[in-house]
Amino acid sequence: MNLHFALISLLTTGLLMAEPSARDDAAWLRGKGILIFHDTFNREETGNGSKAIGNGWNSATADRVPQIKMADLDAGILKIHSATKEAGHAAHIHHDAGFADGGAIVRFRFPGLTKAESLQLGFVDREEKSIHAGHLCYAILSPSSITLSDHKTGVMNLDLRKRRQSYLDRKEKLPADLEDLLKTKQSSTPWKADTEWHELILVTEGDEMRLSLDGRVLSRHRSGGFAHPVKRWFSFLIPGTVWIDEVGIWKVN
C-alpha cells in the first residue's frame, strides 16, 4: 500500500476525520509540504549490520550485537525485535530528515509478541551541542498513554540533565523548581494500545508538536524545543517489538 496516496484518497472521501477543533495534519503535510522520503520496505535486509535495513536507514544499536537480528524485512513489513538486554539499549533506528516544520506519517502495529510493547519516535539533531546525543523531541506510545516530550529544553538539556542526575544518583526528590520546569516540557494523554494497524502522524509546527492516529489528533503540546530549526534525523526507539509497514517524511519549510 502507498501510504501517501491512500491517505489522500481517504481524506478526499471523508473516511478519515480529524477533530473539528484540531488541525488536519495529513492535509497540512500534503498541501503545504514536500515529501522528502518514503519507504514501503519491499525488499530484503542485508544481514544484521547498522545499514542492513537499506534505503538510508541506520541502526545505531545493531553493531552492538551483530549476532542478533533485530530488524527483519518480511513481505513489505519492517519487523523490529529489540535485543535490549543484550545490547544494553533499546533498538534505535533513524533516517535523515531535515526540516524545521514538518513531520512523519507512519503505519505501525504492536504485534503482541513481547510484554508491554511501546514505541518512541521523534527527531534528533546530533549537531546541537546543548543536548545529550542530539535528542530534540519525541512522542512515546506506551500501553496506556501517549506522551509528547520536549527533550531539548527538558531532560536532555545538558545543564538540566546534570542537575537532575545528581538528585537521582542520591535517590533524592527533585527540588520543586526543577520538577515544575520539567513538567511543563511534556504532556500525556490516556490511550489504550492494541494489536491493530494504525496510521500515525507526528508533526512539529513552530513550538507545537501534534500526534494523530487514524486521522484524529490525540495529543498536542507547546514547548520551545519543538521549534528547533533543523530536525536532522527521524528516529525510532523500540524496547520491545513493533511492526512498521510504511514511513513518509514531509518538510513544510
What does this structure look like?
It is a single chain. This protein has a single domain, classed as Jelly Rolls. It is an alpha+beta fold. It has five helices and 15 strands. A hairpin with a 3-residue loop joins strand 8 (135-141) and strand 9 (145-150). Strands 1, 3, 4, 6, 11, 12, 13 and 15 form an eight-stranded antiparallel beta sheet that branches. The chain has a seven-stranded antiparallel beta sheet with strand order 2-5-14-7-8-9-10, with no helix packed on it. It has helices at residues 3-13, 25-32, 84-87, 158-169, 176-183; strands at 34-39, 58-59, 71-74, 77-81, 91-96, 102-109, 119-124, 135-141, 145-150, 186-190, 198-205, 208-213, 216-222, 233-238, 241-251.
**How is the CATH topology named?**
Jelly Rolls
Largest sheet: 8 strands, antiparallel
The rounded Rg comes to 18 Å
Provide the helix percentage.
10-25%
Strand content: 35-45%
Backbone structural class: alpha+beta
* DSSP strand count: 15
CATH class: Mainly Beta
Residue-averaged pLDDT: 92
Topology order in helix (H) and strand (E) letters: HHEEEEHEEEEEHHEEEEEE
Q: What is the 3D form?
A: globular
Indicate how many domains the architecture comprises.
Answer: 1
Count of individual helical segments: 5
CATH architecture: Sandwich
CATH superfamily: Exo-inulinase, domain 1
Query: How far do the termini sit from each other?
Result: 27 Å
> Unreliable runs, pLDDT <50, ≥5 residues?
3-21
